[in-house]
Design goal:
The structure holds two protein chains of two kinds. Chain A is of the alpha+beta class. Chain A has helices spanning about 5-25, 75-80, 100-105, 115-135, 140-175, 180-185, 200-210, 220-250, 270-290, 300-345, 355-360, and strands at about 35-55, 60-70, 85-95, 115. The two termini of chain B are about 20 Å apart. The chains are: A alpha+beta, B alpha/beta. Chains A and B meet through helix 5, helix 8 and helix 10 of A and helix 2, helix 4, helix 6, helix 8 and helix 10 of B.
Chain lengths: ~375, ~350
């Protein structure tokens, strides 16, 4: 074992001891509490205020009642539920702050508040993966590899599941077989007549999957051609209108920008800065365009303007870099806040716990 | 080995460690003391606020949450502040997402803000979660003419025809403003190109630092308000926090029987300087209020802003220290470079 590996093991041991010590100081750390809230729904047949004509296969009749699910403790349930009404019940898990949980445990009136083991384990797993990703800053290692693979795998699975339930079920199946979708997946969906035009996107979707087959992959090209063609057409129109023409319109403005104050008079100070801004914008656009204009050799006056264009570009890249740094630091700060607040309970900016326990650590 | 050579050959992991400390120490300090840096809003943040503030209460606002947990640290604070302003103002909020995980972001931010601070807002009448739709810019292009084709049901599976606040919504044209919080593609640029420009709709954008320079050219004609990265979020947060305090005090004063104009000016004064509340409570205007109203006004003026609405301002502390460190490292790197070149060691 070389010196570097020994150093890493020592650092990990020290961190482990510190975390273990933190777990037994004050109120501990890294726990999630929830309240079990029982929910019971009942299906009632309530009268319809505006009776409507409903067409069935055999006759047209007036609908006088409608069947809806309401909470069993609601006024409507008391009025219209019968002994034979269909009911469903489940427990909803509502997060509560540790401060609420501590107070409830102390008073003995827990009212369904409990330590939520699955969420607590989830919190610790999140902390572990955060540290595993950070460990790459030292050097590549198996913990980082595991964390990276899990992120990729979970993201792909999540995208697929969300895409299926938010798009394929309500938008495709909901139009092709609305009655089946309403009865099986989405009770709240309107059960209108099937829209057979949706067979076209369904067919295109199936064709795209032929890329996975050993033979007949060329069938997916029809779908790809459709996607490329429509995207190009959509973007061309939007870019000409939104990027090209609108940007020309925004640039070609009078250099002298008059700014009026509340009394209707000219605000000299604001007018000066607005005019300077417009002038800078105009010079910057022309200088950058000159830099990218290669039909004329960049010598003499043209070369000078092109060099000015380079300065404008450099300032733009510098601003972009500055913004990027700011963004990355914000993300790092958010992860540290998660570790210090949610996991280690060292700080309490949102008053989730008893603040004195964290401050007391310093004393 | 000389000092110069040590610096030249320093392991880059020392920079990582310094950056980690530069971010971690301010977080702990701010977390323990609760002190944040003062923020002065720039015109861009003020414009973002004014777009929503100028609309009458009950306006229809489409809020597109096109971001994921990876950018939540940067965009989450502006998302919560947008919801807070809309909720306080009484706008009707329609949430959608073009990113699959955006649906989760909608649930997270609405639970925190509406569930925690505006529980009186009713789902389906004051706000609705329409969830995620795949299709990127094609979704925007479609709902520009036919909203229900893309959103036949909300995220809970309820048909939009059974949701009261969806009445009268046929296309994007029926919304009074669009708010987009974006971490990339599809996001703010697509909302500019396919919604704000052709429909001439007021669009407010909150975006990551990487995107911000690309969005500036659209201000002010195509984007009315722009919040760039955590700095934009902190500025907007401070404006919204001040306004919410002022609006809450004004409403309490009006409910207590004070005239609207007097209540507005008093609320402005008390929100700006809560220490004046004690002196104000002795004035004749305060005497005309009931003791309960007076106590409520004093409590509102002195009440600390909830921690979730200070997220961006808290993160400006680490920003300051980390940026100072970066500037210091850049300066030191250049000094070492020129010094080693003078000694003949440079390339």
């Amino acid at each position: 074992m070389n010196r570097q590996n020994v150093g890493v093991i020592v650092v990990f041991l020290i961190l482990g001891v510190l975390v273990a010590a933190r777990a037994f100081v004050g109120d501990g750390m890294g726990r999630v509490y929830t309240r079990l809230d029982p929910v019971e729904m009942v299906r009632i047949d309530r009268p319809v205020l505006d009776a409507t004509l409903v067409e069935t296969e055999t006759e047209t009749q007036t609908q006088t009642t409608e069947s809806v699910w309401v909470r069993s403790d609601s006024d409507q349930a008391r009025d219209f539920a019968t002994a034979s009404s269909q009911t469903v019940a489940w427990n909803r898990s509502e997060p509560v702050t540790p401060a609420e949980a501590f107070a409830a445990f102390e008073s003995g009136e827990t009212a369904g508040i409990r330590l939520d083991w699955p969420r607590t384990i989830g919190l610790w797993v999140a902390a572990f993966f955060t540290l595993a990703i950070f460990s790459f800053l030292y050097k590549d290692n198996p913990f980082y590899k595991v964390a990276e693979s899990v992120v990729v795998g979970v993201s792909a699975a999540y995208w697929m599941v969300v895409g299926f339930w938010d798009m394929i079920v309500p938008n495709l199946l909901g139009n092709l077989a609305p009655g089946f979708v309403q009865a099986t997946f989405l009770p709240g969906l309107d059960a209108a007549s099937p829209q057979w035009a949706y067979l076209i996107p369904a067919t295109f979707g199936v064709l795209l999957l032929t890329r996975l087959l050993p033979k007949g992959q060329w069938l997916s090209l029809w779908t790809l051609a459709f996607i490329v063609g429509t995207t190009a057409a959509l973007r061309m129109v939007a870019y000409i209108e939104g990027d090209f023409l609108s940007q020309i319109n925004a640039t070609v403005q009078p250099v002298y920008q008059v700014v009026t104050d509340a009394d209707g008079g000219v605000d000299g100070y604001a007018t000066f800065w607005a005019s300077l801004r417009q002038l800078t914008l105009l010079i910057g656009v022309l200088a950058c365009l000159t830099y990218f204009f290669f039909s004329v050799e960049h010598k003499g006056a043209v070369g000078g303007v092109a060099r000015l264009g380079i300065w404008f570009l450099m300032i733009t890249f510098g601003a972009a870099f500055g913004f990027t740094v700011m963004g990355r630091i914000a993300l790092l700060a958010a992860r540290f806040e998660f570790l210090f607040d949610d996991w280690l309970w060292l700080i309490d900016p949102t008053n989730q716990r008893v603040v004195a326990s964290a401050v007391g650590l310093l004393g | 080995m000389s000092f110069l050579q040590r610096i030249e050959n320093a392991d880059r992991r020392w920079v990582f460690l310094l950056m980690g400390l530069a971010v971690a120490v301010p977080i702990i300090y701010i977390g323990l003391t609760g002190k944040t840096l003062p923020e002065k809003a720039t015109p861009l943040a003020e414009s973002a606020f004014e777009v929503l503030d100028d609309l009458p209460s009950g306006s229809r606002i489409l809020l597109a949450w096109d971001f994921d947990p990876a950018s939540e640290g940067e965009l989450g604070p502006m998302a919560t502040s947008f919801i807070r302003q809309c909720s306080q103002k009484g706008h009707r909020m329609y949430f959608i997402a073009l990113w699959p995980v955006g649906a989760q972001m909608i649930r997270s931010t609405t639970t925190k803000v509406i569930g925690g601070y505006y529980p009186d807002l009713e789902y389906g009448r004051d706000w609705v979660d329409l969830g995620f739709k795949a299709g990127n810019e094609a979704v925007i292009k479609t709902i520009a003419t036919d909203f229900r084709q893309m959103f036949p049901a909300d995220a809970r599976g309820t048909s939009v025809s059974a949701i009261p606040m969806m009445e009268g919504i046929a296309s994007l044209a029926d919304f009074d403003a669009i708010v987009n919080v974006s971490a990339g593609y599809p996001g703010s640029k697509e909302w500019v190109l396919y919604a704000a420009t052709p429909l001439k709709k007021p669009l407010v954008v909150g975006c990551t630092g990487v995107q911000a320079p690309l969005m500036y050219p659209y201000v002010p004609n195509q984007v009315r308000g722009l919040l760039g990265a955590i700095k934009g979020a902190a500025e907007y947060e401070s404006v919204v926090n001040g306004w919410v305090r002022e609006d809450s005090i004004r409403k309490t004063l009006v409910a207590g029987g004070m005239a609207e104009s007097e209540a507005a000016s008093t609320a402005t004064t008390l929100a700006r300087d809560p220490d004046d509340a004690g002196a104000w409570s002795e004035t004749a205007a305060a005497a005309s209020l009931t003791p309960e109203s007076k106590a409520a006004v004093i409590a509102l003026a002195a009440a600390p802003t909830p921690g979730i609405f200070l997220e961006a301002q808290r993160r400006m502390g680490p920003q300051l220290v980390a940026h100072l460190l970066m500037i210091g490292l850049i300066v030191m790197g250049n000094l070492v470079f020129f010094a080693s070149r003078r000694r003949g060691g440079g390339r």
